[in-house]
Specification:
This protein has 127 residues and is an alpha+beta fold. The protein has one domain: Sufe protein. Chain: A (Alpha-Beta Complex), CATH 3.90.1010. The chain contains 5 helices and 3 strands, in the order αβββαααα. Strands 1-2-3 form a 3-stranded antiparallel β-sheet. A hairpin with a 6-residue loop joins strand 1 and strand 2. The longest helix is centred in the last third of the chain and has 23 residues. The relative contact order is 0.22. The structure holds zinc ion (ZN). Zinc ion binds next to helix 2.
Length: 127
């Protein structure tokens, strides 16, 4: 059902865990498979210096979370916001059609975390 790259990311995902002193946190879920993805980042001078995720869900959700964190690490906020779930799926070499909704999770979590960061920043408690 999944290609080799998806299986590899699922079995040994990168950037699993929680960033210490994170200043951007996002969490999203989808009802159809019950996937939940939590992402934490340390953003400095507009650059995503560190990013980690915790995903509870199907192989597609874990694989897309892993590859998405690799895609945004070291990028600017704007570059990270511009990444679409389609690009994440392409990076993985494709997903079965019924699993595409799982890839939306990574894009959603990244956007939620950056929104969280920007809100904190505006309130002046971007410690
Ligand atoms: Zn799923």
């Amino acid at each position: 059902m999944y290609n080799e790259k998806v299986m590899k990311e699922f079995i040994s995902p990168s950037n699993v865990g929680e960033v210490k002193n994170a200043n951007a946190v996002g969490e999203v879920g989808n009802a159809s498979c019950g996937d939940i993805m939590k992402i934490s980042m340390r953003i400095e001078n507009g650059i995503i210096e560190e990013v980690k995720f915790q995903t509870y869900g199907c192989a597609a959700a874990v694989a897309t979370s892993s590859i998405a964190t690799k895609m945004i690490k070291g990028k600017t906020i704007d570059e990270a916001l511009a990444i679409t779930n389609q690009e994440v799926v392409e990076e993985l070499g494709g997903l079965p059609a019924q699993k595409i909704h799982c890839s939306v999770l990574a894009e959603g979590a990244i956007k939620a975390a950056i929104k969280n960061y920007l809100e904190n920043y505006k309130m002046g408690n971007n410690a």
